[in-house]
Batch of 2 targets.
Target 1
Amino acid sequence: MSVTIYHNPSCGTSRNTLAMIRNAGIEPTVIEYLDSPPDRRTLQAMIRDAGLSVREALREKGTPYAELGLDDLSLSDDVLLDAMLVHPILINRPFVITELGVRLCRPSEVVLDILPSPQKETFTKEDGEAVIDVDGRRIK
């Protein structure tokens, strides 16, 4: 089964998500979306398949969100998508795609809901939070 992650290596949540995918024994396709952003159709499909609105897929922190006036609730999805395509940093991350579904993995352990394989070992996030126990089971 293929797994794809739209990854930002500078993001702790994205790094933790990638590490949990690998902890399941899966080597995913890693797309560093700041360098290789999805096209409009792919982005729309990811957002839709994750059950999100376009606005819910927008990242505010550390982006030009405010400067671009994207907090204006009257802006259409097309305008928001245009901004995300011009400024990929506005795409919240990480999105993960598997045959079991698509999720915006915030928090990172959301990825466990769509992985086809169980976790192989204990897993602790970068911040020290334990996520997977010695039996490969989710702690919370």
Target 2
Amino acid sequence: MNGNCMRAAEGDTERSRERTIIRASIIGIATNFLLAAFKAAIGIASNSIAIVLDAVNNISDAGSSLITIISTKLAGKSPDKKHPFGYGRIEYLSSMIVSAIILYAGMTSLVESAKKIIHPVRAEYSVLSLVILGVAVIAKIVLGLYVQKTGKKVNSGALTASGADALFDAILSSSVLASAVIYLIFKLPLEAFVGVVISCFIIKSGIEMICETLDDIIGKRTDAALSRRIKQLIAEEQEVRGAYDLIISNYGPNKNYASVHIELPDTMTVKEVDSLTRRIELKVFKETGIVLTAVGVYSFNTSNDEAARIQNEVRKIVLRHDWALQTHGFYVDLERKILRFDTVLSFAISPEEAIQTLYTEVSAAFPDYELQIAPDVDVSE
């Protein structure tokens, strides 16, 4: 499988994912419109603000599903000259919009519920209205579980958020139903107080979803398990002594591109390195779906005791600092008196300060050598 085949496989997967998201969203739209119509009729007939707000919430859910469909179609556009990595990140924007809708619905419900506490209105429930509310609760639970499961399966933040919102709606409707039953039996008007409690939970959910989507937009740390898996796959190749500097760039759900450095013997030819790196790229894509766009190479000394001694001494000097997490890419050119290596730095120190410190200390131990020290950022496991 060459690069064109990998891109074709990506395209097939993306089209299947798009169809799944749109199908789930259409089901959500149809269900929410039906529930909204029934609840609006019941709310108006029974003079219940809680049921009317629940109907409005269903309409907002249908709007969220429509936004998800539109964003999925836009995100599925093929890469072009202006956006060579595609439009996948549009889905993060739609997730943000859906989260904002959830937050707005929660705040609106809170305000309206508070008004009804201050100025209570007598509600009149019928048995039929309670039965319809019960059916609506079941429908929302089934819809929420289906949409959320589908969202997680295809890695769609907007779909997952819509599913979570549907489950919150089921809780909201259950609370309205419970307060209605309590009112019929004990004549206690609790629906406004229940609305306040549920509104707070919806607001909390909206804020959490916004924060999670912001992490995706800003760029978050690579998952440690995924990082270890990729490095393990690379290190399984006989010639590779280690894999370092793995950086994964995300351009939307399931659209990840990565670069990595591998440490190879200084005796390998360019032809051998080329064959190896292509084999690694294919292997990583098959196992993880991540496209390695660049594989850099470090060489290591293969048959020199003096080089090994120098490396051990330098490692001791570097790693005695807490902010120096790792050294790699070490190579000594004994003839030209050049010593080079990379150091992974923690976020506790600036790269400039760290490199200056290392230059001073290593130069003191090896004054005859020209130093080439490169700082690396601790971006993955």
